[in-house]
Amino acid sequence: FCQTVKTIASPILFREMVSSEAVVRGSEKTMAMAGFAQVERPIVQQLFGADPDTMAEAARLIEETSAPDGIDINMGCPVYKITSNFNGAALMKDPALASKIIRKMKAAIRVPLSVKIRAGWSDPSECLDFVRVVEDAGADLITIHGRTKCQSYSGKSDWEMIGLAAERVSIPVLANGDIFTPEDVVRALKATACDGILIARGGLGNPWIFSRSEMMLKTGVVPPEPALEERLRVMLEHARRHVAFYGPKGIVTFRKHVSWYVKGIPGVKAVRHELHTIDSLDALEIQVQKLKRLHAM
């Protein structure tokens, strides 16, 4: 996905989080996940964990082996299997531990260190004090998702709260949550007065959102949506990269990406079942050709 985005735009990319414990254990699978192509730069590797020494060592190893342009600490993931081990958003419940993790990691690496958090665990105002903990511990940047852990992805991202938190620190703050269009980017920046935006779910099946948002910020004009031909072409390119990395079975995990790419395309219902059950690149290309014929392309 990162390589696909970089063929269209040049945002700073935050990679999927990897386990600090797995990095320190030398897990080949985890280290492969932390690898990247030079074309993906600038890129930031995200880590999760709860032990300060392990997190620091993992950050040092990642910097030494993969040499990303930055390291990010995940203190915002709401998923139970993460928080049940006191990782992710659970760290917001223990500011002292969070501070120790940040300080240890900052001392272990040379590249910038950022932290992603949520509005809070259960109270959305928790971030107001927590951002100061993060800044005082030495972080260079904070990303704030405007929901609590307890909300998960229900309700709305509280951009107003993000803005209030951003006012309390002097380091850069990125706003995150409910940003799916270039118009959302403009509205979020206006509502929060943050230094930037981190787009997550809004990029799924939509790698054009980065270039279109940048264009709107520069011109004030909403850029046109990519044409169907472009959407299908980029989807196939993405699929080929995905399978090249994960092997032939990777096409199965790519099905979710297909669903995102074709969402909203007129006539897609006629091939939806086939798209959701593709088992090879050839099968995907056949369904793409069917979609093209439906639109007389």
TrEMBL record:
Coiled-coil intervals: none
Binding site for FMN: Q46, K116, H145, A200, R201
GO molecular function, one term: flavin adenine dinucleotide binding
Necessary cofactors: FMN
InterPro entries: Aldolase_TIM (IPR013785), DUS-like_FMN-bd (IPR035587), DUS_fam (IPR001269), DusB-like (IPR004652), tRNA-dHydroUridine_Synthase_C (IPR024036), tRNA_hU_synthase_CS (IPR018517)
Domain of life the protein comes from: Bacteria
Protein name: tRNA-dihydrouridine synthase
Catalytic activity: a 5,6-dihydrouridine in tRNA + NADP(+) = a uridine in tRNA + NADPH + H(+); a 5,6-dihydrouridine in tRNA + NAD(+) = a uridine in tRNA + NADH + H(+)
Presence of keyword Transmembrane helix: no
Keywords in alphabetical order: Flavoprotein, FMN, NADP, Nucleotide-binding, Oxidoreductase, RNA-binding, tRNA processing, tRNA-binding
SUPFAM superfamilies: FMN-linked oxidoreductases (SSF51395)
Cited PANTHER family: TRNA-DIHYDROURIDINE(47) SYNTHASE [NAD(P)(+)]-LIKE
Protein role: Catalyzes the synthesis of 5,6-dihydrouridine (D), a modified base found in the D-loop of most tRNAs, via the reduction of the C5-C6 double bond in target uridines.
Domain DUS-like FMN-binding residues, every copy: 3-291
Residues at the catalytic site: C77 (proton donor)
